[in-house]
Amino acid sequence: SISFNVYQRYDAIAAYLEELSKTYSSRVKVTSIGDSYEKRQLHAITITNGDGVANKNVILMDAGIHAREWIAPAAALYVIQQLVENYEQNSHLLTNYVWIVVPLLNPDGYEYSHTRERMWRKTRKPVTKFCAGTDGNRNFDFHWGEVGASNSACADTFRGPTAFSEPETQALRNLMHSLTGRAKFYLTLHSYGNYLLYPWGYTSALPENWHDIDDIASAGAAAIKTATGTEYTVGSSTNVLYAAAGGSDDYALGKARIPISITMELPSAGQQFDPPLSKIEELVSETWIGIKAMAEKVIEKY
Ligand code: 0X9
Ligand code: ZN
């Protein structure tokens, strides 16, 4: 079991995934999609209804590419808990689909933000003598470095020395490509600001299927608004937030051809990257309501 009254560390997250794979071995498989720079395993959990993966469609979710955004991995863990431990209420989400969740894509940065520097955002691989870390969400090879990404190693939005310079972004890229044709929905969790964002982040132009993505994101926002009153802004990254190229969401749609690609920026609860411990559970359960509504719509349409 896992509790949502603290921000769980890497080891506790790994132990929880391991526990689920043992307790629910017919429905859960935990794999490593690669190692971080500091050699932590990048865990992915595959959740099914027990019928196996066959060639089912996939919902792919990740969190924690940005180290300091602690509420995002917590929300991913809550999704995992609901799908696995509250299976009876959520089995309709697993009839024709398989979920693959990477709850902590940047464990080195996450641990560093707990132990050394609370506001750390990037990965941890050294770049120069003086500066370490690449912004994982500027490191994907789709219009890489064109806008909203720094070429300076010390910057928080450093694009990396080359596209896919980081083992963490390589691992997610490889996972996406291994799911070509099957993955219909890619959702990446961030914080903060209450946004449901979709491509493109590299241009103010919109993808040809933007209306389909907007429908899904809007269903998520509406479900949350109805449940708790929390409001989300829905729109393309460039048009409602800012232009920034090299994001995983743009790559998922533009290169891996996952048709529904959404970045969800969770709430701050008035405390930026530090929603109070007493608020974690209500934030992640509210987030789950939105994710569930989006998934239900994807499943019905694709
Ligand atoms: O800047 C980002 O990477 C995301 N915001 S955050 O505050 N969590 O850092 C937004 C990313 C939106 N997607 C793209 N720009 N591709
Ligand atoms: Zn982020």
UniProtKB/TrEMBL annotation:
Location of the Peptidase M14 domain: 6-298
Domain of life: Eukaryota
MF (Gene Ontology): carboxypeptidase activity
Keyword hit for DNA repair: no
Residues at the active site: E265
Keywords: Carboxypeptidase, Disulfide bond, Hydrolase, Metal-binding, Metalloprotease, Protease, Signal, Zinc
Cofactor(s), by name: Zn(2+)
Family listed: Belongs to the peptidase M14 family.
Annotated protein name in UniProt: Carboxypeptidase B
Species of origin: Bactrocera dorsalis (Oriental fruit fly)
Encoding gene, per UniProt annotation: LOC125778663
Full protein stretch here: 118 to 419 of 445
